[in-house]
Amino acid sequence: MKANRAGNPSHAKPEGQQVDPAKVLSALSDAGASVLAQVVLVGKPPSFADIPGELEDKVRSLLQQRYPDGLYVHQADAIRSALQGDDLCVATSTASGKSLIFMAVAAHRLLREGGKVLVVYPTKALIQDQMAQWEAILQPLGLRAGLINGQVKIDARKTVLADSEVLLMTPDVVHAWLLPRQDDPVIRALCNHLTLVILDEAHVYEGAFGTNVAYLMRRLEAAAPSFKLIVSTATIGDPDKFVQRLTGRNAKVIGVEQDASPRYPSTVVLAGNASFDVKAEALRLISRRGIGRFIAFSDSRRMVERVAVIAARVGQESNDDLPRQLKQTGILPYRAGYENEDRNRIQAALTCGGLAGVISTSALELVRNSVIVITDSGHRDQRVSGIVIKAISGS
């Protein structure tokens, strides 16, 4: 294990302003909310380890160029376990480098053994966001990634299968298109040569959706019985039991106890009396007072855009150029369905400080430079229904 060292931009402390939690609390109070609970979470520095020597030479060389300080300890341990043949579940925190783990393992297996890798993402928007990351690690190694979602025409899909070593799909595509066509030689070849299956963002597979994906994984196992498995998920309780129920497999877990990524000091606040208008006003005040960049999550596309309009206090007087008016306020909505170019511009603007905040569905992963994260509390008791705010004061 290596001590914390500066100099690696990929593992560096995110740049951004210091957030004063007192100012966030003041904005909440002025908006009409009340603070029901407040907890201060201490930070911790990262711990690094050498890049595993077991990795294929080209993959190891690429990682050494990009991560001269090495990997987080849990990343190195997870990669080593996967290379030893373990099915793996990575259940560490946001921005802890889970994607790098399975991308490095996938590249290693493809260069050493050939075959195909199937990566299942729960939404089309997530596939679009992750495609660039896959290309960044695969293209220097002479490997290709291809995506197949509902927007890819049926006639073009087999060409993607034939031309790509890594296939990115949604569960719906695997269920409705891939598995029913086992008599097709191209699809049969994919299943016969499938060496690795990756389930990313697996924590969303709950309820009826989770049950359907559990059945899907067992059908995939019957069609392609020789693949190894990596499951990536947010921090959840009993991840080993979760993976067993979801996939039928017993996986080695790299969890929060092994997480060696940095954690920045933060203050978590539960605010009550937070009606729709109060939430929107709180966001407007945080933006106007320059307290810190924020991401506010809502559970529907319509609500995202409604909150953005009200928080910006535009749209009622004149909605002739609503996108321009919203941008001027520094608050933009973000949801699936936007053009890739628009989504990328919003993410880049939030990351570099060009926006005060974004109001989003779950389509947006946390941007490391955001310093205030706001979510609905989801509490059934209307007396404490409100918002949970995490102010990352060490950013």
Order of helices and strands: HEEHEHEHEHEHEHHEHEHEEHEHHEHEEE
Tell me the number of strands. Answer: 16
C-alpha end-to-end distance = 25 Å
Shape: globular
The CATH architecture of the largest domain can be named as: 3-Layer(aba) Sandwich
- Mean pLDDT across all amino acids: 83
Q: How much helical structure, as a percent, in the residues?
A: 40-55%
**Rg (C-alpha, Å):** 22 Å
Strand order of the largest sheet: 1-11-16-15-12-14-13
Which range does the strand content fall in?
Answer: 15-25%
Helix vs. strand class: alpha/beta
CATH topology of the largest domain: Rossmann fold
Taking the sheet with the most strands, its summary is: 7 strands, mixed
Number of helices: 14
**Assigned CATH class of the largest domain:** Alpha Beta
